[in-house]
Design brief:
It is a single chain. Helix content is 44%, strand content 20%. The chain is an alpha/beta fold. The protein has one domain (6-165): CinA-like (Maf protein, Alpha-Beta Complex), CATH 3.90.950. Strands 2-1-3-4-5 form a 5-stranded mixed beta sheet, sandwiched between helices. Helix 2 links the parallel strand 1 and strand 2 (52-57). Helix 1 packs parallel to helix 6. The model has no long low-confidence stretch (mean pLDDT 97).
Length: 167
């Protein structure tokens, strides 16, 4: 699999921005394995200050706990790469912002760090809306570190677009 093109990523971010702007909503992001890529992507778009409120890069578990109020018990029981943690990250991003929509990404981009239970390429997503809607998803992405990370960013953006469009 190839890396998602910059053009496609910018298109997805722009589409999300249009949807958020039309609703008068702001976005907050909580990223782990993507290291702020979603935040960089959306802030590269002119006018994104109208719909992007803030981003959290919470690579370490301590950061997830301190910045997003992810329960230590969730991390202990399910690990950083789990739907439970991604959901808690998204909910925490909403709680610690003025946004109405949030997305979260946590995964294992490789090349190392994978296990039999949680292999390289496993990525978990969380999406939260101010009305209490909370969704999560997990997928296994193939490729090298850059491919996994770019595809995770695209999937997170697509997931939030689909969620907002479904309500």
């Amino acid at each position: 699999m190839a890396r998602v093109s910059d053009e496609e990523l910018h298109q997805l971010a722009g589409e999300l921005g249009e949807i958020l702007r039309a609703r008068g909503w702001m976005l907050a992001t909580a990223e782990s394995c993507t290291g702020g890529w979603v935040g960089q992507l959306v802030t590269a778009l002119p006018g994104s200050s109208q719909w992007y409120e803030r981003g959290f890069i919470t690579y370490a578990n301590a950061a997830k706990i301190e910045m997003l109020d992810v329960p230590a018990a969730t991390l202990d029981e399910h690990g950083a790469v789990s739907e439970q943690t991604a959901s808690a990250m998204a909910a925490g991003a909403l709680a610690h912002s003025h946004a109405q929509a949030a997305l979260a990404i946590s995964g294992i981009a490789g090349p190392g760090g994978g296990t039999r239970q949680k292999p390289v390429g496993l990525v978990c997503y969380g999406w939260a809306l101010a009305d209490g809607t909370l969704m999560s998803s997990t997928c296994r992405l193939d490729g090298d570190r850059e491919e996994i990370r770019s595809r995770a960013v695209a999937a997170a953006l697509r997931g939030l677009i689909e969620l907002i469009n479904s309500i």
